[in-house]
Automatic annotation (TrEMBL):
This is Uncharacterized protein. InterPro entries: COOH-NH2_lig (IPR025681). The lineage of its organism: unclassified sequences, metagenomes, ecological metagenomes. It holds the Pfam family COOH-NH2_lig.
Amino acid sequence: MKTCSIDEIRTLYVDGKFADIAKNLPHLRKAADPLIQFLMASNLLKMKDWLTEKLFTVGADPEFIMCKRGTEEVVLFSSQHTTERYKLSEAAVGADYGLLEIRTPIFTKPKELVKHMKVSLDDFMEQYEKLDILKKEAVEFNHSRQRIREQIDSEDIDYGVRFNAKEPEVWGANGGVSIEDLEVMNYTLSAYGKPMFNKPNPDIFSAGGHIHVGGAYVKMLSFDQLKALIRKIDQAVRPLCEAVETEAGKLRREIYGFPGEFRLKQYGFEYRSLSNAIFWEENSKVLSKILTIIMDTVKTFATQE
């Protein structure tokens, strides 16, 4: 079998043909080319079944602070708000400790996610005529005392509700990004290597705009490479989010949304720095731009190093 040249390897990478790269990479392992050394330092040769999965996927689970329609009076969303059209689940639409959370399927194109968000929010607001989305990233609000007043029990917290129409879609594939011990998925990490010792503030109620990024382009990366990718994404998109935030965005960043926040997931990683502002309907163009930047950065990362 003829060994591919370095230029041919670069073309295969851009085309996402990782199985072909894996066949040829060992023969080029001593080459000084930056791309070859990047690929040798990655997990590409260990990927096995991951080589044939989707090249890039994106999803999200943005949170929204709810209020009584026509007012700014905060309402804690919980299973008590279930309607006949919805039933409890962990997919589609959820109640995350008093926040409304839209839990999307995975998509391969940013525009599909943007469209899904609009349809989901429009449909949800039609079903809950007494509720509205408070266009703030955080509010001063003692939700612990409010839960007691509303008598919300633990079983009413962090449940989801979904359409009865179909079963939830399975997200991602088996396996981790670069660390086999997936227990670390529960930890928030910093792409900049800074300690994440932020203390929850019981008087601040905040909403994030978490983005889920996966696919073979992500799973091939070593942990150090993954952190470098997230830093590059963070520096490109975080300013775009902050540009459309309200003053409440600063309040949120007192406890959440530090630069380069992420969690490892089976599908890849969850990027947690952004607020929910980009998921408001009036900022849909900003959301589309941010998702496109993330996709382009992921797909070209190795060639830009």
